[in-house]
Amino acid sequence: MDIALDEARAAAGRGEVPVGAVIVDPASGAIVARAGNETRALNDPTAHAEILAIRRAAAGLGAERLSGCDLYVTLEPCAMCAGAISFARLRRLYYGAGDPKGGGVAHGGRFFAQPTCHHRPEVYPGIGEAAAAELLREFFGARR
């Protein structure tokens, strides 16, 4: 999660919402991909940290499915990202701060709880929550 927090800090430094994501192969401990939000830089509303990390991991591994890999992300994924996590067949999701407004895992539509969800990763919330929440508070506080 520390590396995901580094990605979030880098995103904030670029003026992006500070969310970072890292995909790890737990068998080797290797980082497969890492990313921070790039929606502004790419003018792409889908360029969330999770989506970018999934794209990079799939390209790097040469596979559309990331079975056996784990995702660490600093903020509860939105419904779009939860869908991508499911389709990528990620094994586990670890996330930091919950997102009552835009989250799609423990809040909102609760994507993985829906009967139409074909793959549900193991979910571990609250990992590095205090640090992730503080980054978001500082970022948005400076803009108000």
UniProtKB/TrEMBL annotation:
Name-wise, this protein is tRNA-specific adenosine deaminase
Main function: Catalyzes the deamination of adenosine to inosine at the wobble position 34 of tRNA(Arg2).
Q: Which key words are in the record? A: Hydrolase, Metal-binding, tRNA processing, Zinc
Q: Fill in the subunit field for this protein.
A: Homodimer.
| Keyword hit for Nucleotide-binding | no
What this protein catalyses is: adenosine(34) in tRNA + H2O + H(+) = inosine(34) in tRNA + NH4(+)
Name the gene behind this protein. tadA
Q: Which cofactor does it need?
A: Zn(2+)
GO MF terms listed in the record are: tRNA-specific adenosine-34 deaminase activity
Where does the UniProt annotation place the signal sequence? none
Residues the record marks as active site:
E50 (proton donor)
**InterPro entries, alphabetized:** APOBEC/CMP_deaminase_Zn-bd, CMP_dCMP_dom, Cytidine_deaminase-like, tRNA_aden_deaminase
Give the cofactor binding note. Binds 1 zinc ion per subunit.
Q: Which PROSITE patterns match?
A: CYT_DCMP_DEAMINASES_1, CYT_DCMP_DEAMINASES_2
Q: Which family does it belong to?
A: Belongs to the cytidine and deoxycytidylate deaminase family. ADAT2 subfamily.
Stored HAMAP family: tRNA_aden_deaminase
- Taxonomy-wise, where does this protein's organism fall, top ranks first? Bacteria, Pseudomonadati, Pseudomonadota, Alphaproteobacteria, Rhodospirillales
UniProt keyword Metal-binding, yes or no: yes
What EC number(s) does this enzyme carry?
Answer: 3.5.4.33
